[in-house]
Specification:
The complex is a heterodimer of chains A (506) and B (366). Chain A folds into two domains: 3-319, no CATH class; 363-459. In chain A, the strands form five sheets. Chain A has a six-stranded antiparallel sheet. A five-stranded mixed sheet of chain A has the order 4-3-2-7-8, sandwiched between helices. Chain A has 14 helices and 17 strands. By secondary structure, chain A is α+β, with helices and mostly antiparallel strands. Chain A is globular, with a radius of gyration of 27 Å. The model of chain B has no long low-confidence stretch (mean pLDDT 84). In chain B, helix 8 crosses helix 9 (239-253). Chain B folds into two domains: 1-289, no CATH class; 312-362, no CATH class. Chain B is 46% helix and 13% strand. Chain B has 366 residues and is of the alpha/beta class. In chain B, the strands form two sheets. In chain B, strands 1-2-5-6-7-8 form a six-stranded mixed sheet, sandwiched between helices. A two-stranded antiparallel sheet of chain B has the order 3-4. Classes of the chains: A alpha+beta (506), B alpha/beta (366). Chains A and B meet through helix 1, helix 3, helix 6, helix 9 and helix 13 of A and helix 5, helix 13, helix 14 and helix 15 of B.
Chain lengths: 506, 366
C-alpha cells in the first residue's frame, strides 16, 4: 500500500466518509453493462442457487434453481442464463471497424463495441470462472445431453473470466474492485470485499457516517451478503425449509407452483438489495470523467472479444483445462506487460495516481524557467535537434544524471537529465535535453517543445510500446518444460475428460 | 490445583472449561501476540457466549447444506470398510494397498476416558514395525494434547492409516479440488488442523516409548474431485504448521507469565453484568488485526475497541503510515498541526509530503 493511499484511508476515518484516490475513472463503463448477481448453494462445488441478471436497473431477471443438487436443474439454470447472456454478447457483433495493422500494409476488423459484465465481488468472478469450467465441455448429444447453448455459455464465461485477470481490462469487473480503485475507505481490505459496507463508506445515507453505515451493513438479516455465498442463518431458517417444501410437492402441480413462487420470492429478497447496490455503484463510477487512456484499453477488450467470437465461429474448441507450457508462458508474459502498462497509463491519466509516484521519487513536477528550442547538437555524424529546458521544482529529485524521463503531456518525447542542481532554498534546478516528438527537421514545430512558464510533470515511467518476447511453437516445447505436448500426452495420465460428457456432476 | 489453574477457573467463573477441538487449537496459531485471546483460550472461556453477552455477537454460523454435504461425502469415502479409502491413500503414497485392511472404529465406546484409553491401547499396539505389515485403518481415534497445562481431548473425524511402515493422518474435507486446484484458504485451514492431529498422534506414540517420527508429516487430504463426488487424494506437508503449533502451545504453557500481566480481579464469568465484563476485557491487552474477523469469536468487540487505530485497517496500512499508532496522530502530523516527536520526524515528513501532493492533485489548498 502506498503512503498516499494509506493517508487517504486515515482521512476517511477522521472525516467519516471514503476519500477519493483517483480524479478520473480508470475503467471503461458500458452504456448497458450486464449486471449479474449470482448465489451458490453452500457446501457444494459451485452449485448455482439463483441469479439476478440484466442490463438496466429495471430489467432484472431472476433465475432460480429449486433443487440445486439436481444435475439437470443445474444445466437448466445454465441454459436459462445463456438465454440472457448470449443474446447480450451477440448484440455487440453488429458493427465492426477496420484497423490498420503491420504499418498500414494490412487491415483487420474489430467490433466497435464489446460486452461488459459486472458482478459484486471477486468471488463472483470465481463463480463465473467455475461455472464456465463446469459447462464448456458439455455436449448437446450423448449420455447427458445439454442444451446447445450450455457449452457455448461455458466458453464465453471462461473467456470473460480470463479477461478479468488481464490488468486494465473492463470486460468482467467486480464492483468492489472497481470502487476501491477510486475510493479509499476507513476499513480494511477484507472488509472492503463486502459490497454493502463498502458503499456505506463511499455513499452513506443521510445522517450516518460511513463507519456507521458500514457497521449497519454488516448485519446479514437486514443487508444480505452480496453473494455468491449466502448467509448461513438464512440457509438454515428460511432457504432450507423452502427447498424442502418444494421437494415435498412433487405430485401436486398446484402446490408445486406455490412452493416455487415462495422460493422465488425468498431468493429475490436476498438478491434485490445487492442489485440496487450494483446500480448505485455504476452511478457513482459514471459520475467520474473517464481517463484519457481508458478508451485505448477498451479497444484491447474489443480486440479480444472479436478474436474469441471469430474463434467460436470458426468451430474452434473450448479452452483447455490447463494451458500447455508455451501457452502458459505467453499468457504470463502478456499479463506482465499489461500490468506494467496499466500502472503507467493510470499515472499518466490521473495526477492523484501520479502523486503516488512523486512521493516515491519516480516523478516530479516543476515550472519551466528556461527553454532553448533551437539547440542543435552537431557533435555527431549529422546535426540533430536537441532542445534543452530547465525546470525548477520544490520536490526532491532522486533521478540520476543521464536518466531518461517522460512527460505525460508529451508522451512520445524523451528527456535526458543533464544537470540536477539543488539550490539553497529547497528548490532544485533540473536541465533536460529533449529528443523525439518534434518532427524530422532541425526546427521544432510550435508546441512540441515546452515553453517558459509551463508546469510539467516528468517521470521515469514510460508508456512506450513494450516489445513482446519470443516463444517457441508448442511443438517445440523444450524438454525442460515437459517437451512437445504430443509426447507428454502419450506417456502421462489417462486421457483427460476434456469434452467428456460423462464427467460426473454430483 | 496450581495457583494458575485456580486463577483460570476464577476467570471462567463457576463453569467447566470449554472443550477445545482441532479448529480452536488451530486458531490459536492465528494471532500469537494477543494476550487477551491467549488468556481466554487458556482459561477455556466460552468466547461465543462472552461476545454475545457484551453485545458483539460472533458470526460463525454454518449452513446446514454445507454440513449435510460434508457428512455425506465422508460417509461415502469411508463406506465398505474403507476399501476405496485405502486404495486412494495407497495410490497417493505410491505403495501397494495389499488385499485387505483392518478397519477399527474407535468412535463406538461411549464415555471419553474409555474411548481415550482404547484409542491409546489400539494405536500403540498397531505401531508400525515394518513395511510388510498389512494395512490398518483407525476411524475416530480419540487423541489428546496438552493445552495451557490441561489435557484436551480431540475427536477428529479422521482416519489414521498404517501403511508401508508409517502412520498417516487422513483428513476428509468436502471442498472440491477442481483441475488440481482448491481454495487456498480452505487448504491452509485443513493443513493446520491436520497438524494438530499429527502432533497429538506423535505425542501418543512418544508417551508409549515409540519413535514419534513414525507418524508422517505428510497428511493425506481427501476431497471431491472437480464437480463430482468422486474422491481424490492429495498430500499436504504440514511440517511448517507443526513448528508454528509447537511454538504457540509452548507459549500457552507459559500462561503464568501472561497471567502476571493480567489484573488480579480480571473476570470473564458470563454471569457478570456486561458493563463489568467489558471493563475487565479492556484491561487485558488485545492485538486486533482484520484477520481476527475470520477466526476469533471476540473479533467484533476488539475491532470496536481498536477504532481509530491504524492497525485496524490492516498491517500494510499501518506500515505505509510509518508505523504510527492512531489515525488522529497521522492526520495531525500530515496537516502539520502537530509537531512530530524526534522519532516521528521521518514519518511526519513523508506524511506532510503526501498530504501536500493529495491536496495538490485534488485541487484543494494544501
Amino acid at each position: 500500500m502506498s503512503t498516499l493511499r494509506a493517508l487517504a484511508k486515515a482521512q476517511a476515518v477522521t472525516s467519516g466518509v471514503a476519500q477519493p484516490v483517483a480524479t478520473v475513472r480508470h475503467i471503461h463503463l458500458h452504456e448497458r453493462p450486464l449486471v449479474l448477481v449470482p448465489l451458490a448453494l453452500a457446501g457444494e462445488a459451485n452449485a448455482p442457487l439463483a441469479a439476478l441478471v440484466g442490463a438496466a436497473p429495471d430489467e432484472a431477471r431472476l433465475l432460480v434453481v429449486p433443487q440445486p443438487r439436481n444435475r439437470s436443474q443445474r444445466f437448466a439454470f445454465a441454459a436459462e442464463l445463456a438465454s440472457v447472456v448470449l443474446p447480450y454478447l451477440d448484440a455487440h457483433r453488429g458493427v465492426s471497424e477496420a484497423v490498420a495493422v503491420d504499418r498500414g500494409r494490412d487491415v483487420r476488423h474489430r467490433y466497435v463495441d464489446a460486452p461488459q459484465l459486472l458482478v459484486p465481488n471477486p468471488a463472483g468472478i470465481t463463480f463465473l470462472r467455475l461455472l464456465g469450467r463446469s459447462t464448456r465441455f458439455r455436449r448437446p448429444d450423448g449420455d447427458y445431453p445439454v442444451h446447445p447453448s450450455v457449452p457455448l455459455l461455458g466458453r464465453w464465461l471462461t473467456f470473460l473470466a480470463e479477461r478479468a485477470e488481464h490488468p486494465g481490462s473492463s470486460a468482467l469487473l467486480a464492483m468492489t474492485d472497481a470502487l476501491t480503485l477510486h475510493w479509499a475507505t476507513g476499513q480494511s481490505a477484507v472488509e472492503d470485499l463486502h459490497l454493502p459496507a463498502l458503499l456505506g463508506w463511499i455513499d452513506p445515507p443521510d445522517g450516518l457516517t460511513g463507519a456507521e453505515a458500514a457497521a449497519r451493513a454488516e448485519d446479514p438479516s437486514t443487508h444480505p451478503p452480496a453473494g455468491p455465498a449466502t448467509d448461513p442463518d438464512f440457509d438454515n431458517r428460511r432457504l432450507s425449509p423452502a427447498i424442502e417444501a418444494y421437494a415435498a410437492t412433487e405430485d401436486d402441480p398446484a402446490a408445486r407452483a406455490e412452493a416455487y413462487a415462495e422460493l422465488e420470492a425468498l431468493l429475490r429478497d436476498q438478491l434485490a438489495p445487492t442489485w440496487e447496490l450494483m446500480w448505485r455503484g455504476v452511478g457513482l463510477l459514471r459520475g467520474l470523467p473517464p481517463g484519457a487512456r481508458v478508451e485505448g484499453r477498451w479497444a484491447g477488450d474489443r480486440d479480444a472479444f472479436t478474436a474469441h467470437a471469430e474463434h467460436v465461429d470458426s468451430g474452434g474448441g473450448p479452452q483447455p483445462r490447463r494451458d500447455g507450457a508455451v501457452a502458459a508462458a505467453v499468457r504470463l508474459h502478456r499479463l506482465e506487460r499489461a500490468l506494467t502498462s496499466y500502472a503507467v497509463q493510470r499515472a499518466y491519466d490521473d495526477p492523484l495516481v501520479m502523486a503516488e509516484h512523486r512521493l516515491a521519487g519516480e516523478a516530479f513536477v516543476g515550472d519551466v524557467t528556461l527553454a532553448d528550442p533551437k539547440r542543435v547538437d552537431d557533435g555527431g555524424k549529422r546535426p540533430v535537434l536537441r532542445p534543452r529546458i530547465q525546470l525548477v521544482t520544490t520536490e526532491a529529485v532522486l533521478v540520476p544524471v543521464g536518466a531518461t524521463l517522460y512527460s505525460p503531456a508529451r508522451p512520445s518525447q524523451k528527456a535526458r537529465v543533464v544537470f540536477v542542481t539543488p539550490g539553497a532554498d529547497g528548490k532544485t534546478d533540473v536541465v533536460l535535453e529533449l529528443s523525439g516528438g518534434m518532427g524530422r527537421g532541425l526546427t521544432a514545430p510550435p508546441g512540441s517543445v515546452p515553453e517558459v512558464g509551463e508546469r510539467l510533470c516528468y517521470t521515469t515511467l514510460s508508456d512506450a510500446y513494450l516489445p513482446s518476447g519470443a516463444f517457441p511453437a508448442p511443438e517445440e516445447t523444450p524438454w525442460t518444460h515437459g517437451g512437445p505436448p504430443g509426447a507428454a500426452a502419450a506417456s502421462a495420465e489417462p486421457p483427460a475428460t476434456d469434452g467428456d460428457p460423462t464427467e460426473e456432476w454430483a | 490445583m496450581t495457583s494458575s489453574e485456580q486463577r483460570l477457573a476464577a476467570i471462567r467463573g463457576g463453569v467447566p472449561p470449554r472443550r477445545h477441538n482441532a479448529r480452536t487449537i488451530a486458531a490459536l496459531t492465528g494471532n500469537p501476540g494477543c494476550t487477551r485471546r491467549a488468556v481466554l483460550d487458556g482459561a477455556g472461556v466460552d468466547k461465543t457466549g462472552l461476545a454475545d453477552r457484551i453485545g458483539f455477537p460472533a458470526r460463525f454460523g454454518q449452513s446446514r447444506f454445507a454440513i449435510t454435504r460434508g457428512n455425506a461425502f465422508e460417509a461415502q469415502v469411508k463406506a465398505d470398510g474403507g476399501v476405496e479409502l485405502l486404495r486412494l491413500v495407497a495410490e497417493r503414497l505410491g505403495v501397494e494397498p495389499g488385499d485387505r485392511a483392518d478397519w477399527t472404529d474407535l468412535g463406538a465406546a461411549d464415555d471419553l476416558p474409555d474411548r481415550h484409553t482404547r484409542s491409546r491401547e489400539l494405536l500403540t499396539a498397531a505401531v508400525p514395525t515394518g513395511p510388510r505389515q498389512p494395512a490398518a485403518l483407525f476411524d475416530h481415534p480419540l487423541l489428546s494434547l496438552e493445552v495451557a497445562g490441561r489435557r484436551v481431548h480431540l475427536e477428529p473425524d479422521l482416519v489414521a492409516a498404517r501403511l508401508a511402515g508409517r502412520l498417516h493422518v487422513v483428513e476428509i474435507k468436502s471442498f472440491p479440488v477442481i483441475d488440481g486446484q482448491a481454495d487456498p484458504a480452505k487448504v491452509s485451514a485443513a493443513a493446520t488442523q491436520s497438524a494438530v492431529y499429527v502432533l497429538a498422534l506423535r505425542e501418543l506414540l512418544a508417551a508409549a516409548g515409540h519413535d514419534p517420527e513414525l507418524v508422517s508429516h505428510d497428511v493425506v487430504l481427501i476431497c471431491p474431485r472437480d464437480f463430482a463426488n468422486q474422491p481424490v487424494a492429495s498430500l499436504l506437508d504440514v511440517r511448517k504448521q507443526l513448528l508454528v503449533l509447537r511454538r504457540q502451545l509452548a507459549r500457552m504453557d507459559r500462561l503464568d507469565d501472561l497471567l502476571a500481566a493480567v489484573p488480579a480481579d480480571f473476570t470473564a464469568d458470563l454471569a457478570t453484568d456486561p458493563a463489568t465484563l467489558t471493563a475487565a476485557l479492556s484491561r487485558v491487552e488485545a492485538r486486533y488485526a482484520p484477520e481476527c474477523l475470520a477466526s476469533c469469536e471476540l473479533a467484533y468487540f476488539c475491532r470496536h475497541e481498536a477504532r481509530g487505530r491504524t492497525g485496524a485497517m490492516g498491517r500494510p496500512v499501518r506500515e505505509a503510515l510509518g508505523g504510527l499508532g492512531t489515525v488522529t496522530e497521522v492526520v495531525a502530523l500530515a496537516s502539520g498541526e502537530r509537531t512530530p516527536e524526534p522519532e516521528q520526524a521521518e514519518a511526519a515528513a513523508l506524511l506532510r509530503a503526501a498530504a501536500r501532493l493529495r491536496a495538490d492533485a485534488l485541487g484543494a489548498p494544501a
